[in-house]
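lol so apparently i was supposed to do this last week
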Amino acid sequence: MSHITRRRALGIAAGAAGAAAGLAVAGSAVADAPRAAAPAAGPAPASFDEVYQGRRIQGGPAHGGGHHGGHHGGGYSVTIDGEELHVMQNADGTWISVINHYEPVATPKSLARAAVRELQGAPLVPLTLG
Amino acid sequence: MTVRKNQASLTADEKRRFVDALLELKRSGRYDTFVTTHNAFIMSDTDNGDRVGHRSPSFLPWHRRFLIEFEQALQSVDATVNLPYWDWTADRTSRSSLWAPDFLGGTGRARDGQVLDGAFARSANRWTINVRVDGRDYLRRDLGAGGRQLPTRAEVDSVLAMETYDMAPWNSSSNGFRNHLEGWRGVNLHNRVHVWVGGQMGTGVSPNDPVFWLHHAFIDKLWADWQARHPKSSYLPAAGTANVVDLGDTMRPWNDVTPADMLDHTRHYTFDTAA
Ligand SMILES: [Cu+2]
Ligand SMILES: [Cu+2]
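anyway here it is w/ copper (II) ion bound
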């Protein structure tokens, strides 16, 4: 099994491409937004660091590239017990993760909490290819 | 000729052959390549970036092509097998024959969501979840958790009535038929069904649950139903749209098929009822 580092890299590239598209479509509202790939022009979501149902959940600005790259979270990264949860922000500002992919929630913190409930104690694993 | 039937009308022999073909694809490793492909698109399709499989106009032709490829894999195991569809407006409870032990098995137990009956239960040792986002290697479900309801026929009809295929900005915030069917906006059809099943079906690796194919076969049929109802409406956008698959653009990962190639399902299969 190998970590999908190539896909992570592609994901970051797609985020960068998304910035250009956002500029083209939404004009200055997006141009002024600090987070390149963030579709919504609202304020950046707050950072958080708490223990929820026995799991440490953290969220905040991603430290560009690397293992904890923000992917499509618009430069925002979420971890559960230190392992990255792949998150994505929708055009309307709501959030989904790879664990709760089809049910948007309002904030990255409620997204992390939903993932903890869904995991029922199981660890996140870096996505592996059989 | 492939005829896709309503799962509720399958004979015992058809169910057994379908399940056996799934188990053989799983054993050979071919099944998991479909899960991997799906999750790669789930993770890379974004509202403001490149989007092909989801949250975009090509959601429907992409999944049509994906299902055809999967159905062909099943048929390479057993040529008599076709993909059935699950009309969740009709078979809308966990007591449906779909979830019986001779077909897909039932919901998961409360403690850990594990499916315990049927061929896909972990204990049968023929359905290990290999492509996964967490440590659990068993199929999980939580059918109708929290009192959630599947979409009704009236809700489906309200979406089928929409004349325009898709609209700018061609993503999860769009108005129009495609995004209402996908479920990011409005009454929510496709997304809600993933959530209603729960377990892996709520995640990016949703094809780990065989019901994925029956759900998408019905979504695909609803696209055909919509075409029949709106013969003057066509796939949009037509051309020149950044990050989006236009009518004549090729779709990843195949790179040799366009939405235009996928508009007429009868070149590949028909349904048991007129679309
Ligand atoms: Cu999909
Ligand atoms: Cu789906």
